[in-house]
Design a protein that fits this description.
Elements: E1 6-10, H1 15-27, E2 31-35, H2 40-46, E3 52-55, E4 58-61, H3 66-76
Parallel strand pairs: 1-2
Antiparallel strand pairs: 1-3, 3-4
Length: about 80
C-alpha cells in the first residue's frame, strides 16, 4: 500500500523549517516542499505557522520532535 503524499510548508531562511525538514529526512517518508512565498494561498494560511507538515487535510504544526512526527505519520498514513 502506498503512502499518502506528505507536504512541508516552509520558506527560505527559516531555521525551524530546516529542522522540520531534517526530521522528515530522518523519517524516510518521501515529501514535497512548498515554499509559501511562491504560493499565495499557502502564504496567507501559513505565514505565522511554518513549518507545517500536511498529509491531505491533516496538519502537524511546529514544535514536534522525531518521535512525535513518526507517530503522526503512522496515524495519518
Amino acid at each position: 500500500m502506498s503512502k499518502k503524499p506528505v507536504t512541508l510548508y516552509s520558506t527560505w531562511g527559516c531555521h525551524l523549517c530546516d529542522s522540520a525538514e531534517a526530521l522528515l529526512i530522518q523519517s524516510g517518508y518521501p515529501y514535497t516542499v512548498v515554499d509559501i512565498v511562491d504560493d499565495a494561498k499557502a502564504l496567507e494560511k501559513y505565514r505565522l505557522l511554518i513549518p507545517v507538515i500536511a498529509v491531505q487535510e491533516q496538519e502537524l504544526n511546529w514544535p514536534f520532535d522525531a518521535e512525535q512526527l513518526a507517530i503522526w505519520l503512522k496515524e495519518v498514513n
